[in-house]
UniProtKB/TrEMBL annotation:
Transmembrane segments: none annotated. SUPFAM superfamilies: Molybdenum cofactor biosynthesis proteins. Residues 12-156 form the MoaB/Mog domain. InterPro entries: MoaB (IPR012245), MoaB/Mog-like_dom_sf (IPR036425), MoaB/Mog_dom (IPR001453), MoaB_proteobac (IPR013484), MoCF_biosynth_CS (IPR008284). This is Molybdenum cofactor biosynthesis protein B. SMART domains: MoCF_biosynth. Keywords: Molybdenum cofactor biosynthesis. Belongs to the MoaB/Mog family. It comes from Achromobacter agilis.
Length: 173
């Protein structure tokens, strides 16, 4: 880490769940709290059911919003038939970050063994907005945050990070 001041990113958190509400969205709360502790702002937050088109609607709005720089979704990335996050998000991406899913599954293997292969965690970007799609469990969100996202969203992390792509975003628009 360098001595420079960190860049504060404008982030959004989307929970994909048929059962969660604002009162019990523990994984969404965990992500929003971790973002705040790291000096980022959670500028959008929502909960959506496992509905392909509702997921796309919300994400498309956030991707088009110049204020939103990073989107983190939680839930809907598994192997169950109702899990729709991959189907909803992949067509929206301009670029993918294949190393994110690979690294996440490697790290998850230490906790859940071979069940890690059923995680469809992935990342990419659309309209210069980073999108990270995580499983819905608190443990998975904590693993992703502590071992990948915290550093990669910190502009001081070297040799590289995602945050530096957004330093001058306002000048680009």
């Amino acid at each position: 880490m360098s001595d420079e001041s960190p860049v504060s990113l404008a982030c959004a958190v989307l929970t994909v769940s048929d059962t969660r509400s604002a009162g019990d969205d523990t994984s969404g709360n965990l992500l929003a709290q971790n973002l705040a502790r790291a000096g980022h702002q959670c500028v959008r937050r929502d909960i959506v059911k496992h509905d392909l088109y509702q997921i796309r609607r919300i994400l498309s709005e956030w991707i088009a919003d110049p204020e939103v720089q990073v989107i983190i979704t939680t839930g809907g990335t598994g192997f169950a038939p109702r899990d729709q996050t991959q189907k909803a998000v992949l067509p929206l991406l301009d670029h993918d970050v294949p190393g994110f899913g690979e690294l996440f599954r490697q790290l998850s293997h230490a906790d859940i063994g071979s069940s890690a292969i059923q995680s469809g965690a992935f990342a990419g970007s659309a309209n210069r907005t980073l999108i990270f799609c995580l499983p819905g469990s608190n443990n998975a969100c904590e693993t992703a945050w502590e071992q990948i996202l915290r550093e990669q969203l910190d502009s001081r992390h070297r040799p590289c990070n995602f945050a530096t792509q957004f330093k001058n975003r306002e000048e680009d628009n």
